[in-house]
Each structure stands twice: as C-alpha cells, then as structure tokens.
Amino acid sequence: MATRKAKQVCPTPGCPTLTDAGRCPPCQAQARAARPSTHARGYDRRWRDASARYLEDHPYCECEQCAPLPPLQRDLATEVDHVDGLGPLGPRGFDPANWQAMSKRHHSAKTARETFGT
Ligand SMILES: [Zn+2]
Ligand SMILES: [Zn+2]
Fold it and tell me: From the CA of 30, how far away is ligand 2's center (Å)?
C-alpha cells in the first residue's frame, strides 16, 4: 500500500507498453471491440441441435449467390445463418423463417461483410 506498484508490461502478447495494472488503454479498447465468444453470443448446445435439424432439411447453401443455382451446383451447407444478422440471441434467433443454410466459405464471407462492411 505504501509503496507504489512498479509498472508492468501490458499482458497483450507483443505489446511492450508499460501500464499500472492490466492492459494498456489501446489494448483495452481493442479487447472491448473484439467480438465476444461464440458461446456468449448464444451459439450453445440448444442452437447446435436446432441448426443441425435445419441442415438435414436444407442440405445446400441458400445464400444470395447460391439460391438461383440448381442444388447440385451449390455448396453443401454446414452452418445456419441468421438472415437478420443478430444470431441466436436476437428476437428471431430460433425462428426458422429467419434462417438460411450456408456453406462455411459463403457464411464467412457474409459475416465479414456484416462486420466490416457498414
Ligand atoms: Zn498493450
Ligand atoms: Zn452460397
């Protein structure tokens, strides 16, 4: 208590900044901006079960790019996307009318557009 704590190196790997405690302010801001874990966003067991059932009925990618193609020319779907972009915790998280089956690469492309596009 009487002695001032020595400064420590920011715990972020590769960051050399000295801080009083915890991460340096730029790293704190970055950590806040990072997306929470998939589980925190509602992608839990209940979601996995529901989406697995949906994919049994929707085996092909239903993205904008694939929708006009005949099924055999589409990617195989491995993931269920929320059309509203809000995930399982959104108001329509478990509404199949808000879902579309997607292949991993098309889903990643859409997520990247949602995250960085607007
Ligand atoms: Zn830092
Ligand atoms: Zn697709």
Answer: 31
pTM of the predicted structure, to 2 decimals: 0.66
What band does 34 get if pLDDT is binned at 50, 70 and 90? confident
Write the CA distances from 31 to 3, 6, 12, 28, 64, integer angstroms.
Answer: 30, 24, 10, 5, 33
Whole-number Cα distances in Å, 40 to 15, 44, 45, 46, 88? 27, 8, 12, 13, 10
Nearest ligand (C-alpha, residue 108): 2
**61-97 confidence digits (pLDDT tens):** 999 999 999 988 999 999 999 999 899 999 999 999 9
30 CA to middle of ligand 1, Å?
A: 9
